[in-house]
């Protein structure tokens, strides 16, 4: 097994959030600050990139290629990791180039990434074509998720159990599925609540496929699908309220696509049946703050 390339500062902090807990009706709540890991404005993708970049370097790659939406946190952090390691980066992004770059797009360019706009073509197809025509390139999957990179969240789960040995539940946004899969592999499915962001058509299949690739037994996953709204890129009113609540109780800034949806799900679940019986809850802050500035409607 390839050892991960060190790209961040670990362990990330685990901070109590008593005012937010009181607002939610949760007995005890902590925030796992994976947004504070040090590289490229932080986020959960840094952990995964430590494994993906180790594979790239072992193969002698000089260019990292990946894909995502225009405000992709994974794309931004791939560009940052490439810069840290002295590699080139190519980002294949969905849609057409906007008239004015915002949010993560500005940081992509600052890090020196080459951006290829896919228009309406399938991202995976365009990314594969870019990799084929570039010698010594390494293609990182959409979202950075693979069975190998999901080991990063086995690492995170072990950090958590050292920091809070008796944790009852971890709440995490689900995009391409690797973060939840790694947590489930180490903590067990019963202690992980995923919140679907609409990034994939079937989050159960996405997480299950990663677990299968990790040679983990099938798990009965718990994924809340109530916060998708009009789709992955859309800001919903519950998410807007969740962003306000986190900022005004804890000075905690979330993003509208991932962590905002995860907190909106917690709020909704409390309103429906209360959460205090769930005990020691950890909310995984998976980063994404630059994406907030790609949503001026906030």
Architecture overview:
The protein has 298 residues and is an alpha/beta fold. The protein has two domains: 177 residues, Rossmann fold (3-Layer(aba) Sandwich); 100 residues, Rossmann fold. The protein has eleven helices and ten strands. The strands form two sheets. The protein has a six-stranded mixed beta sheet with strand order 1-2-10-7-8-9, sandwiched between helices. Strands 5-4-3-6 form a four-stranded parallel beta sheet, sandwiched between helices. β7, α7 and β8 form a beta-alpha-beta unit. α9 packs across α10.
N→C terminal distance: 43 Å
Q: Helix and strand succession?
A: EHEHEHEHEHEHEHEHEHHEH
Biggest sheet descriptor: 6 strands, mixed
Question: Total strand count, please?
Answer: 10
Do you know the CATH architecture of the largest domain?
3-Layer(aba) Sandwich
Estimated structural class: alpha/beta
The total number of structural domains is 2
- Which CATH first-tier class of the largest domain would you pick? Alpha Beta
Tell the overall outline.
globular
Strand content: 15-25%
What is the mean pLDDT? 95
Q: Helix proportion of residues, in percent?
A: 25-40%
Rg computed from alpha carbons, rounded to a whole number of angstroms: 18 Å
Uncertain segments: none
**What is the third-level CATH name, the topology of the largest domain?**
Rossmann fold
Number of helices: 11
Strand order of the largest sheet: 1-2-10-7-8-9
Short description, anyone?
By secondary structure, the protein is of the alpha/beta class. Helix content is 40%, strand content 16%. The chain has 2 domains: 14-43 and 146-292, Rossmann fold; 45-144, Rossmann fold (3-Layer(aba) Sandwich).
